[in-house]
Structures are given as C-alpha cells and as structure tokens.
Specification:
Blueprint (H helix, E strand, L loop, with lengths): L1 H22 L9 H18 L13 H32 L17 H25 L1 H11 L15 H16 L8 H15 L17 H5 L22 H5 L26 H5 L15
Helix pairs in contact: 1-3, 2-7, 4-5, 4-6
Length: about 300
C-alpha cells in the first residue's frame, strides 16, 4: 500500500512542480504548455479581432472570462489534481501483468520521426472522434457534454469549456491508443499536442476558415460551428461534425453536415437555459441526472 501512496504523491507533486517550472520558463520552450497555450490563445484572439466572421459579436463575447478560466482549469489545475490517480492505474496494470506495451499492434520505434508523428496523431484523433460521438449518443454522457454545448457565442476559448468528467472519458481511450502503439509516444509528440490545441482554438473561433480543398482532411470553424448548432437535421439528432482535428472521419462515416457558411446559426441545445451560468454550477452539473431516454436528445 505504501508503494501506491508514494507513487500517487510523487506524481501529484511532480506535475505541480513541472507546471510551476513552466510558469518560470524553467523547462524547454517547446514543452512549455503553460505559456504555449497563452501565446496560441492570444494569437487566435488577435485574428478574431482583425478578421471577425460574425462582425456584430463583441471582442469580449458572452462568457469570455468564464471560458478563459476553463483553459487554465481543464489544462492545468485538473491535470495536477488527477495526475496521481492516473499513476495509480498505471501501477495497478503493471501489478496484474499488463504493461504499457501489452496490446501493441504497431512498433513505431524504428520508423522515421515524421511517420511516427503522423500515425500517433491520426490514431489519437480517431479515438477522440469516437469518444466525442459517444458523448452525444448516450444520455448520461451527454449530460456532462452539455456544458461544452452551452456556449451561445463562439470564440477561441470555448474550445476549453468542457466538464471535468470529460477528461475521465477521453483519457482511458487515449491511453488505450498509446498501448496499441506499444506504449510509445514519439519524442516530438509536443508538435502533435500543440497542433491539436491550435486547431481546436481555431475551430471554435470567430474566424471564417475552411482550408479550401483540405477541408476534407482538417476540421475548421465553418464545419465545427454546425456541431454546436441549436437545430440539427432530421436523422442526425444525436449530432453532426464530431471531428476534433481531422474532419475526414465525419466524411468517412457520413456524419458531416455544412448547409451554408453565414456563421449566423443559433447555438446551443433544447433546454440550455437551465444550464448554470457560473463555473461551480457547471462543475457539478450532470450528477443529478435522471435518465428518461436511453440516448441523448441530440
């Protein structure tokens, strides 16, 4: 038992120390997610101000500061708080004879770095697309995901407004994907992580961007806006456009939907007026849900 307690504490303190060192610029610049996210956020915000898609939307849009807080909570505070528990799970798997490479189907170690990064990125993105689809398909998951869909005006920081429980849904499946790769994360994986954050910020931004012919590969603000649309098409009431960084999964599995590109579509979901407006109300949202249907309402 002492082994587990020590591992829990070491992981918790290690993550806290790394975050503090990041704030002080005492880590390699390319692994400094704290300031990296701030820089990315400011850059995308400047683009929103310079090239607004919805020109009547205020620079400090509705819930701007709430979403800004979510950036730091979900990417740092919660990660610090939960890091010890993930370490415990890792030890438990090892103790039952299931190391990180137990499910290995692909060995990337000898592949060229660019190929390692590409496979790592594509596999993780598919797992996230699949997890995202589940959040819309099952009512008890949808209750937590409603926090993200309570956004009424899109902006870069809306990317990070999501219920902390979503971390618990995404993380195991992402870990499973890494186990398929032999427990291997490429040395340059920070490139993938920063790229995914940038795409996510842009997808939620007030910028009209489609990537031209590349829209069939990469997700974009026009496509993702319809993921947040209040009204959904017949036959797709569980949602559309689930893509995270890549749009190709939606085109492959026929969940794509982009009827027009004015950017003026109402956002939210039926009953979103009942969502608490403050962080603490949203923090506990979903835990008093009485299931009425087996699937989500949209």
């Amino acid at each position: 038992m002492e082994k587990y307690f020590d591992a829990f504490l070491d992981s918790l303190l290690g993550t806290l120390n790394w975050t503090w060192k990041s704030i002080l610029f005492d880590v390699p610049w390319y692994t400094n997610y704290f300031w990296g996210i701030i820089v990315l956020s400011v850059l995308v915000w400047i683009l929103e101000i310079a090239f607004p898609w919805r020109k009547n939307q205020a620079v400090f849009r509705r819930d701007f500061w709430l979403d800004a807080f979510y950036i730091f909570f979900n990417f740092f505070l919660f990660v610090i708080a939960i890091s010890g528990f993930y370490k415990l799970l890792e030890l438990m798997f090892l103790d039952i004879g299931m190391p990180s490479d137990a499910l290995a189907l692909i060995n990337l170690h000898e592949w060229p770095p660019i190929l390692q990064l590409t496979v790592f990125f594509v596999l993780l993105d598919f797992v996230q697309w699949f997890t995202h689809m589940l959040l819309h398909r099952y009512a008890f998951l949808w209750e937590f995901h409603k926090v993200h869909h309570s956004v009424k005006e899109m902006g870069f920081a809306a990317h990070m407004r999501y219920h902390w429980m979503e971390n618990l849904f995404y993380k195991p499946l992402k870990t499973f994907a890494v186990m398929v790769l032999g427990g291997f994360e490429p040395e340059q994986a920070y490139i993938v992580h920063f790229f995914a954050i940038a795409i996510g910020h842009l997808n939620h931004s007030n910028i009209k961007l489609t990537w031209g012919p590349l829209k069939y590969i990469f997700n974009n603000p026009v496509m993702h806006l319809y993921h947040h649309a209040y009204e959904l098409p017949e036959g797709k009431k569980n949602g559309v456009n689930y893509g995270i960084s890549l749009s190709l999964w939606d085109y492959i599995f026929k969940t794509d939907y982009i009827p027009e590109d004015s950017g003026l579509v109402p956002l939210g979901y039926e009953g979103d007026d009942k969502m608490p407006k403050g962080f603490f109300g949203q923090f506990v949202h979903g835990f008093h849900f009485k299931e009425k249907n087996k699937t989500a309402s949209k």
